[in-house]
Each structure stands twice: as structure tokens, then as C-alpha cells.
């Protein structure tokens, strides 16, 4: 991250496009309806093969597994299920007529963890076999719900008294982004959140930051304090020299106008770092 003083696939899922089957032209479908047990041109009561649009085969073996998994969740909640099983439960809804365990495991193998699956960009999700645009979009929708829930936990609360919630929200919002983002949490005189805004989005290791623009926006919102946040896509939240110098410049720009910089938090997949906690500001 650097500071400046002046203002300033294709879908790999098989449901992409029309499908010609047994001499009949089938209308374009997304990958969810593609795996339905009955499709135009297929005999009723038979299931489409889970991997290719070739000869129909029986696909009923997974229904008992789905029922058992749902019952375990009802009885004991998420603590009774591994990450891939939770992902399976979600995929049951998105791909109703297919064994989703291989897809869930493939997603976790590709991205590493459940939060990383939900944080992955759509174009990378669709590189996983069995995941097309519709399923990828629905996964991103689930991620958006999670972010909104965490942000809702900060509403009308003193941010400095809810620091763990701030970190949790920032990690959910930024930890798995492929590019650097610089965001600002704007606070009122009671340190209640007024706004959370992404100021800049950069590359994998660089985001331009304009201190005067940050302070200008704080004045527009009548904010009396701010918290700076940005992510390191590398995963390592260790602050760089440029991060430290940029933070000090914003502090120096904001102080004469009565705006306090409470902290600068750096978010990474491997954790987070607080410049104030490290006594770097």
C-alpha cells in the first residue's frame, strides 16, 4: 500500500448453453436444472449421470444420505457436521438432483476452507467441476448474508467496546479478497459506526491511498473518529513500512481538524495486525 498526498470463463459447469440430446434441441438451462431427474428428451424416472450428459443412470443412492445429514443438523446443529458436510447441505438446495459431496470436497480442496469458498470470486468458483454461474452466484449470496449479519452486530453499538465484532466483520469482508482494499470505518462522537466505506481497491500488493480524501469524507459524514482497515491478499498481516508511513500521514492530516484515527487494522487469511496494538502509531 502506498500513500499519495494529492486528492483525488467460461462456465465449467455442464449447464452452460443449450444441450443437444437424442436429436432434440434443449433450451439453455443453468446447472441446477441440468441435473434434474427429468429433462426434456429423457425418460421419466431416470436420473442424468452426475458427471456427463451421457446415458441415463439411476441416481437415487444419495437421497438417504441427504435425509440423514439433515437430521443430524436438526438434532445437533452445525457442531455435528464437518465443513464439507455443511457445504453439502447448502448445495442440496442449489443442485437438487446430484450427489453434492464430491463438489463440496472439491471446493474445499481448491480454496482451503469454508470461509475461503464463500470469499472466492465467482470466476474461480466456476472453475470447479459441477459449479456454474448460478451456483457460484448463490454461494456469493450466502457470503453477502453473512457479512450483513456481522455488520448488523455493530449497528448502534460503541465500536471500541465491540472490538472483537469489528475484527470478525472485517475478516469476513476482506480476508479472502484477491486484491487489496482500503476501507474506512467512520465513527461519531460516541464511537458509534456512521458508515463503512471502501475507499480504494488496488492490486494484489498495492492500493493507492489519498489522505486528504479520507479526511474530506470524514468531514462530509460529520465523523469525529475513524478506523482504517486494509487487507493483505498474501495472507500475512504484518504491516509494511509504507503502511506505517501512510497511517502517520493520515493521522497528521486529520488531527488539526479534530478527527481521531483510532487504529489501522491489517487483515490477512492468517490473522490480523493492529498498528496501535503493535505501538507503531
Automatic annotation (TrEMBL):
PROSITE patterns: MPN, UPF0758. It holds the Pfam family RadC. InterPro entries: MPN, RadC_JAB, RuvA_2-like, UPF0758, UPF0758_CS. Residues 159-281 form the MPN domain. Residues 1-66 are annotated as: Disordered. Residues 18-34 have a biased composition (Basic and acidic residues). Keywords: Hydrolase, Metal-binding, Metalloprotease, Protease, Zinc. It comes from the Bacteria. The keyword Metal-binding applies. Belongs to the UPF0758 family. This is DNA repair protein RadC. It comes from Hoeflea ulvae.
